[in-house]
Amino acid sequence: MSYAELYCQSNFSFLQAASHPEELILQASKLGYSALALTDECSVAGVVRAYSVIKANKLAIKLIIGASFELEDGLKLILLSPNRQGYAELCRVITNARRRCEKGNYQFTYWDLHSIKHCFILWLPSGDMAKDRRDGATLLRYHRARLSLAYTRLLHANDPVFKQHCQYLAEQFKLTIIACGGVLMHVPERQKLHDVLAAIHSGKMLKDMGTLLEQNTEKSLRSVAKLLKIFPEDYIIAGIELANQCHFCLSNLQYEYPAELVPKGYSAMAYLKLLVVKGIAFRFPEGIASDIQAIIDKELVLIEEQDYVYFFLTIYDIVQYAKSQQILYQGRGSAANSIVCYCLEITAVDPRQISVLFERFISKERNEPPDIDVDFEHQRREEIFQYIYKKYGREHAALAATVITYRLKSAIRDVGKVFGFSDSQLSFFIKNINRRQQTISWRAQVLELGLNKDSAQAQLFIELVDEIIGFPRHLSQHVGGFIISSGPLYELVPVENAAMTERTVIQWDKNDLATLGLLKVDVLALGMLTAIRRAFSYIKQHYQQQLTIADITRLPEDPQVYNMLQQADTVGVFQIESRAQMTMLPRLKPTCYYDLVVQIAIVRPGPIQGDMVHPYLRRRAGLEPVDYPSAAIKEVLSRTLGVPIFQEQVIKIAMVAAGFSGGEADQLRRAMAKWQRNGELEQFREKLISGMKARGYSQNFSERIYQQICGFGEYGFPESHSASFAVLAYVSAWLKYYYPAAFYNGLLNSYPMGFYSRSQLIQDAQRHGVKINAIDINQSSLEHQMCYEKKTNNYVIQLGLSMVKGLADKSAKQLLRQRPKDGYQDFSSLIKSALRKDDLNKLASANALQSLADNRYQARWQLMDAENSLPLWQVADNHQAQQSFSFTPSAMDDLLEDYASTGVSLDKHPIALLLANGQQRQAIGRYTLARDLVSITAHSVVSVIGLVTGRQSPGTASGVTFVTLEDHTGNCNVVVWQATANAQKQAFLTAKILKVTGIIEREGDVIHLIAGRLYDLTDHIEGLKSESRDFH
Amino acid sequence: MLWLYIDFPSLQLDCIQAGKAKRTAESHVDSLPALVIVDAKKNCIRQLNESATEQDLRLGMGLAMAASLVDKLCVLPYNMAEEESYLMTLAEQLYSVTANIALFPPHGLALQVDDMLRLYHHLEHYIATIRLVLAPFKLSAYFACGYSPLSAQLLACAGISLLSTDKSKIATAIATLPVECLFISNKAKENMTRLGIKTFAQLQALEVAELATRLDANTMDYLAQLNAKVTKSLVLYQPKHAFEHSVELLYEISTINILLHPIKQLLTVLEAFLKRRDYLCLQIELRLFNRAEGLSHSLQQALLISSAAGEYLAKHWLNLVNLKLTSVKLLAPITKISLSVKQFQANTGEVDDIFLGRRGQLSFAQLASLLVNKLGDEKVLRMQLGNDHRAEFASHYLPFMSHSVISDAVVTPKAIKSKQLNSAKAMYKKATSKHAFSDKLPLRPSFILPEPEPLLSNVSIMHGPERIETAWWEQSAGQYRNNEVNSTISQGHHYQRDYFIAKNAQGQCCWVYREEKNQWYIHGYFS
After folding, report:
1. Residue contact A203–B214, C-beta within 8 A
2. Among all residues of chain A, which has the CA nearest to that of B433?
3. Which long-range contacts (CB under 8 A, 24 or more apart) does B489-498 make?
4. Ordered alpha helix ranges (H), B135-215
């Protein structure tokens, strides 16, 4: 005999149940259950995972979609969806119950209950006779035909009484009794975790939970034999019969695109073809080559076959809107780099420039959904969101969810609390565990930090932290993944409120959508697009040249731009401006677009963990022959000299070299996306390595491929994304080279973005010959502006008022509005602008009043005079300040004020000032300036001093920290090994000005200082308010 | 007017260390680990010990940074209330040697010197006396004199010890101080530094009239007080109002009977105190001080005396104290006794039936109070429901004066909140849960064997099984249970039993269980 479990919750009933949906399905199938209903509390967030595991393993078990609810008066019931209408109804009531409350909560009302017309209802009696009589009568009134009584037996003391109670109710109301497990875990061993979750939920310690915990493990999936022993057979049969009446499967979901995308009289495909034809005329005005036309035709066939027509039309519609609003955008992702997308203006990647990329993206055999992400200007992305909501309505458009899961830190904190560890101890653990430390596991580290390894508590703590990691904690909103449908979304999937007001999310995340073949449109934000769009507009305004991204990529590859990149002169250039990228540039020496595609992808965990970087560089430099283990591999790897660099390549290798089927490769790709959470990749290891071995590949090569897959798991980077990023990298580099003033001005006005502070960007601009003018109330606008300077016949950047710290936009605008034509001539005219005194003081400190006073201190002194605000004084002209005050700032005073009020000093550098002081210089001892490092021979010992402007510890660099020291002549790159850092923690961690003595290393044009001794010189400049940007 | 300001920059830390140092041998003091007191709001170091300073920790440093710098860091949260209470204790002590004490909470005191110099003649003598009183506390402190409380404060808090009556010397010391040290708002300080005014001397060089139009009134007021041009109205220390009285004994007492006399005096004062306010009290604390151990609070002998019903009569309390003292052993001869009230209660008047005719008899609560005080808290127990699935703990004895935890366990406010039930639902839950709980209590035998015994006779099963499988986290179940806990429970981590109700040959209903290994035990009998 079999069994159908109709009451089972997964860990998507957050903090209530202790098993993943996948585990429940696999275990139920193993135990021989014929069906399992997943009935999370007011949620169907876990059902797709359960469905996918059935599909992947071709299991015979039936998945029933349902949900459990509790009404305000304590009435508990389960809804099961028998068919598509029932499912739509379930989604609708969940949506209604969720939308009434703030994020994470629900309110299921009798109104919702009465509106049920299709779902089966399982009633869970409370055991209180009076209440159950009332509840039974209410339920019966509306749902006689679809109502059953769910009886659970959990081996409690009062089981016989409760059974009698249920039998009485069943007789009274003529209901069928159905045996249910009330399952919360797939195996009894999860009791510990379940108890921990319950304690977290209650905010108590385990030892205080008492009877709030389950008294035994009976809420696990039990064997059919045992169930037959504890339940009467007819109860079990009733359950199976009810399960048999449920026919709904998630594969029945038909996704329908909004019809309004297609004009009347056209079919969708015909319309797409029409748009492509128009696009061809626009993109290829001189006529299209026959080979490109052939590819377009092929792509269109594929799009039609795979039923992606509406998807392309949806994105076309969105980017057309962006174009009409002059919002810069750029598509990326596997499908985005097709020629069809080029014609539809979704991407600016010109296929003639990158012919090598053709055809690789939409792959039928790999069974991947098309992937098109569109990046928009970060300052204007919200406009796109609002357009989508407006066009399709909130009923038809919502954001996908992101499932927030327990990670190490949150797990340590929550589990630690229920075991009774103090908050301060847990904070101490969390702060001191170095997750990047690959050689020592967190378990070993926490023991080193003082957790008593012999105590049973400590062992349980470690065990449970490990177990809880990856458990869903709550649903959050995806950064920009929209799902749009023609019918109401709430009949497809429940919609709930997000934490942000006016935002709604569906209950599934992007992987779930992919499993069901539902397409989402990614509307993402990118700061660089804002910067480029701004640069374009400055160029148009000042140089009368109209540029687009496509215009620049269409030009022939520019050797001068590549020469600049080879010198690692890339501050501000998209994607290749980090220290690690800058180190790679002179080694890789990019000379064409595709080199940039590789450059962007190579400095990533995947290739680094797979040890692929050095082989690639050696082969590129001609130091190592380019060979291929087989012809099949050659086809995959020929464009990267036989070394796998991209995510697509390793997946393809799994197919051609290890014999993965299209479906398996797809599973591998998904497992890579979440391996950090579930360790799912491990199961592919054996198959991959044995598969490759059987086909004659070396163990070493296979291992490296596997390692690389693991690296991609941490941070996957596909070629298709790299290709789109490379376009922006090239365009930004091109702008930096040809229009530096416009480029830096664009960057400064798009701040915050990128790696560098405004101060660093300004210094870089100055080094590139761009003159920067200080903030001035009579010259500056709100934003930074390009101004023509007759004297030099060049453009300079006039810093804007937005840079004054703490000055509100509103005040700055008021100042500009009131500004007389000939500017503010004296304090009285300034005071007439009626700006708040505070704001005027901020302007004075930023030295913006330099035209009115000798120095900023004088300006402040005059502004602070309370009499100035008297009405009488406002009409008096040119009040002469009186004066016991005469303070002349030193250079250091000015510098400190610059840093405090704007974060930037244009003409002074702390190191220069430090060195100008003879006494200080003597105290510092020998040193070398950044500009002089070029002439130092490798392996010699030198000392450098500088302002610490960045500390980066990339995850792949096994404990190395890159410290950037800045002096008035440039930057110096210091490499600090972990042991050096540990031995000199104080200077390493706290110094703002550092002197480092170490050994110079050179590789080509790249110069590093390998740190030996670190000296903290911060005390030499008191009160210096520079801020280092630390990336860990 | 000359003032002496004493700043205790690490009051909380010093008090902790003093306590610790006394407990541990002197030799261990040097090897104290790095200890920091952290301001929880700002998450930065507020006080730190020498060892921490040696390891490069600094005041104001963030906790994360400190933790990265020092491997074994001992962190304590800053407790302002504790510091203020220490400060109050210090004021109390100093009150015996100096008259006007102004409190500058949380860690400073200003003492008016001029008047006292008439008594002590020389500043040195006066200071020496003050130091003598403070010596037992082992506090680090800065002493500074000034011609206004604020100027003395400014110097002491800047870490400058200056003991002098020389006006010019004091003025010079103040002039060199940076404006950062001034006790004015951060905004005012920032205003000054951003005018280039860095030291107090620079500030003084400016015309007051010009300053007045630029600085806010509070700052100008402060500066005037600092220069003693305006006198700050200070609230001087007054002994506290809450009931805490003590009596210094003229001679050492080591006999309890004699001790009762001064205690009676104190209780009489208490009675008058309560009467005036129409209060009752539920708990008093009697502290017995002994000369041998000094006056530090950690070495007092404190006795808590409770009454189950509120009382005010000295007679009643004396009775309870008497009972309590019979079980107390004096550690050393007593030199001082203090009495404080721990728990007051408003006198609402007890309704007594005039016709009951049993006046003069003890009420249940009074009897319980007598017993508790006579036998000790832990000896008078009452049966209460236990919050545990396991039979051994389903009901157990708890001290009479403590309250049952079971009701709290049934409805946890957080659980309800986290489910965000609306108010009606929450009310319903609260109202019904207690009731539902008692309805659903599992059937338990009225007699439980002290230890389960192997089941040797034949029984016939009537009900069951009830499976109990829990408490996996307890290494030893007896760790925080009552002493009556069955020792077999603590064996092994895994507690899994199937309980049955069964009838034996004698017709008794027994509670039997089967363990995982299929061994049967009898655990109790139903009545």
Report:
1. no
2. A74
3. B489/B390, B489/B392, B493/A456, B494/B469, B495/B390, B495/B468, B495/B469, B495/B470, B495/B471, B496/A216, B496/B467, B496/B468, B496/B469, B497/B467, B497/B468, B497/B469, B498/A155, B498/B464, B498/B465, B498/B466, B498/B467
4. 149-157, 167-175, 186-193, 200-205, 208-212
| Distances in whole angstroms, Cα of residue A109 to Cα of each of A104, A159, A480, B438 | 17, 30, 32, 28
Question: Residues of A with CB below 8 A from B421's CB?
Answer: 72
A880 touches chain B (CB under 8 A): no
Contacts of A192 in chain B (CB under 8 A): 472-473
Q: Contact B472/A104, CB-based, under 8 Å?
A: no
The ipTM estimated for the assembled molecules is 0.71
The pLDDT assigned to A139 comes to 93
Residue A329 has pLDDT above 50, yes or no: yes
Could you tell me which residues are beta bridge partners of residue A212? none
Q: Do B414 and A431 touch (CB under 8 A)?
A: no
Q: How far is A714 from chain B (nearest CA, A)?
A: 26
In B326-428, DSSP assigns E strands to 334-346, 381-385, 395-399
Alpha helix segments (H runs only) across A306-398: 309-324, 339-343, 381-392
Strand order in the sheet with B108-112: B101-104, B108-112, B3-7, B142-146
- Distance (Å, whole) CA A936 – CA A924: 20
pLDDT confidence band for B435 (50 / 70 / 90)? very low
What are residue B339's DSSP bridge partners? B245, B286
Round to whole Å and give the CA distance between A694 and A658: 8
B28 has a pLDDT exceeding 60: no
Whole-Å CA distances, B7 to A652, A986, B219: 73, 30, 22
**A290/A362 Cα distance (integer angstroms):** 21
To test the contact with chain A by mutation, choose from B76, B191, B473, B523 the residue with the greatest count of A C-beta atoms within 10 A, namely B473
pLDDT digits (tens, 9 = 90+) for A410-443: 999 999 999 988 887 888 888 778 765 556 778 8
Q: Is any Cβ of chain B less than 8 angstroms from the Cβ of A215?
A: yes
B414/A203 Cβ within 8 A: yes
Write out pLDDT tens, residues A872-881.
444 444 444 4
Phi and psi angles of residue B253, each rounded to the nearest 5 degrees, phi first: -120, 135
Contacts of A989 in chain B (CB under 8 A): 65, 68-69
For residue A729, how many C-alpha atoms fall within 13 Å in the half-sphere facing its CB?
30
Question: Does residue B246 or residue A443 have the better pLDDT?
Answer: A443
Average pLDDT of the segment spanning A875-901: 70
Quote the pLDDT of residue B58.
Answer: 86
- For residue A157, the chain B residues in CB contact (below 8 A) are 442-444, 466, 499
Contacts of B470 in chain A (CB under 8 A): 191, 195, 213-216
| A110 contact B CB<8A | no
B194 closest CB neighbour out of A212, A845, A882? A845
User: Which range is least confidently modeled, A521-525, B36-40, B247-251?
Assistant: B247-251
Residue length, chain A? 1032
Percent of residues, chain B, with pLDDT higher than 70 = 79
Residue A956 is predicted with a pLDDT of 59
Contact list in B for residue A427 (CB cut-off 8 A) is 63
Assign residue B235 a region: left if phi > 0, alpha if psi is -120 to 50, beta otherwise? beta
Three-state DSSP class for residue A301: helix
> How far apart, in Å, do the first and last CA atoms of chain A sit?
57
**Does A423 reach chain B within 8 Å, measured CB to CB?**
no
**Residue in chain B lying closest to A856 (CA):** B195
Q: Is the pLDDT of residue A886 over 50?
A: yes
Q: Which of A216, A217, A857 sits opposite B196 (nearest CB)?
A: A857
pLDDT tens-digit series, residues A34-52: 999 999 999 999 999 999 9
